[in-house]
C-alpha cells in the first residue's frame, strides 16, 4: 500500500509540511479533522508544531485521500501541535 500524503500550505501557497497516512474524518457541512504524523517541508518529523490561533489559516490538499467528497479544505487550524498533530478545517473559503 502506498503512502497517502496530505500537504499543508499557507494562504500565500508556501508549503508548510505534510501528514503521512493521516486519519481523515469528514463531518456534515464540510468540516474535516486531520490527525497523524506530521513532517515539515524538508521531510523531518516535527516534534512540536507551533501555532497561533490569530494567524491566517492554512489550506490542505486532500487529493490523495480516497472516499471523501472534497479535495481541498480551507480555514485549517492546528488543534494539537505535538505528535500526533491534529488539525481541523472546512471546505468553504
Instruction: Identify the overall geometry.
Output: globular
> What are the low-pLDDT stretches, counting only 5+ consecutive residues below 50?
none
Measured on Cα atoms, how large is the radius of gyration?
Answer: 12 Å
- For the biggest β-sheet, the strand order reads 1-2-3-6-5-4
H/E element sequence? EEEEEE
How many DSSP H or I helices?
0
What class do helices, strands and sheet pairing give? mainly beta
Helix fraction bin: under 10%
> Care to count the β-strands?
6
- C-alpha termini separation: 32 Å
Largest sheet: 6 strands, antiparallel, barrel
Classify the beta-strand content into a percent band.
Answer: over 45%
- Average the pLDDT over all residues and give the rounded result: 92
Structure description:
By secondary structure, this protein is mainly β. It is 0% helix and 51% strand. It has no helices and six strands. It has strands spanning 5-9, 15-27, 31-40, 58-61, 72-80, 85-90. It has a six-stranded antiparallel beta barrel. The radius of gyration is 12 Å and the shape is globular.
List the helices and strands and how they pair.
Blueprint: E1 5-9, E2 15-27, E3 31-40, E4 58-61, E5 72-80, E6 85-90
Antiparallel strand pairs: 1-2, 1-4, 2-3, 3-6, 4-5, 5-6
What attributes does this structure have?
0% helix, mainly beta, globular, six-stranded antiparallel barrel, 93 residues
